[in-house]
Design a protein that fits this description.
The structure is a single chain. The chain has 273 residues and is an alpha/beta fold. The protein has 2 domains: 151 residues, Rossmann fold; 111 residues, 2-Layer Sandwich (Hypothetical Protein, Haloacid Dehalogenase-like Hydrolase, Chain: A, domain 2), CATH 3.30.1240.10.
Length: 273
């Protein structure tokens, strides 16, 4: 079989729980690059929040960010594709924010902005030890996030709601999906709702990149661990879920590999390559 491109989620997939790239994953990816294979990280993170170990990895020429809201050329350090939220979608999300006790984040031109109260204490909203460090290191604090988002409503890559209660997350997920037209609603972790343009999503944006590179979906392997990876896994021939993936993600996959802590990406690639 001929694999020309490897697309991979980062958190819970390519990276360990301590947000590192393991020795084995690094080795196998390097071998793939030597064979001329593209390595394309595909993440819900903003471009600014993508770790340097990924941006600087040899062979990483493109990065899909904001759950498919944008694609960046690493070498040119610029955005080459974007699928922004519509003004009306942003305004509808802001009405939800005003009515609900949730934290809102917005992603604009590759930069993540969040409410000050969340950055001060992410753990109270369910963030893990490393999640706390990540949030504090990457987010720009905003006191009035609603006014800020309203002023920037024609520039938003995506919006996220962080919910303290699981039942709130589940209810809002359904309501946003049903009540706001032209949005794509997904989730990468249990307390989070991520909202992008209906034509965003990792799967659709990966297909855009494949068309640009003249690579067929039969020549691609894609890895993920969460619901926001499902569209990408389903879009290509070799869609692979991690051992630690959600049940939805596993159902979408051709097969399930080891966990992110046990070099699942590398183990699967050794078989494919």
């Amino acid at each position: 079989m001929s694999i020309k491109l490897i697309a991979s989620d980062l958190d819970g997939t390519l990276l360990t729980n301590t947000k590192e790239l393991s020795v084995k994953n690094r080795k196998v990816l390097s071998e793939a690059v030597k064979k001329g294979v593209y390595i394309v990280p595909a993440t819900g993170r903003s471009y600014q929040a993508v770790p340097d170990i990924i941006k600087e990895f040899p062979g990483v020429e493109y990065i899909i960010t904001a759950n498919g809201g944008a694609v960046y050329s690493v070498g040119e350090n610029r955005r080459i594709y974007e699928c922004l939220l519509k003004d009306s979608s942003v305004e509808a999300c802001l009405r939800v924010k005003k009515a609900e006790d949730v934290i809102m984040e917005v992603f604009i031109e590759g930069i993540p902005y969040s409410e000050e109260i969340y950055i001060k204490d992410p753990a109270s909203y369910g963030a893990t030890e490393y999640g706390v460090k990540y949030i504090k290191a990457t987010r720009k604090p905003i006191k009035d996030i609603v006014s800020f988002a309203l002023k920037s409503r024609n520039k938003l890559d995506s919006i996220a709601f962080v919910c303290k209660k699981k039942e709130t997350q589940e209810r809002l997920y359904r309501e946003l999906e049903n009540d706001i037209p032209e949005v794509y609603v997904t989730s990468s972790v249990p307390n989070l709702i991520e909202i992008g343009h209906i034509n965003a999503g990792k799967g659709k944006t990966l297909l855009w990149l494949l068309d640009r590179l003249k690579i067929s979906r039969e020549e691609v392997a894609a890895f993920g661990d969460a619901d926001n990876d499902c569209s990408m896994i389903e879009a290509v021939k070799y869609g692979i879920a991690m051992g630690n993936a959600t049940e939805n993600c596993k159902k979408c996959a051709v097969f399930v590999t080891e966990t992110n802590e046990n070099d699942g990406v590398a183990i699967a690639l050794e078989k494919l390559l």
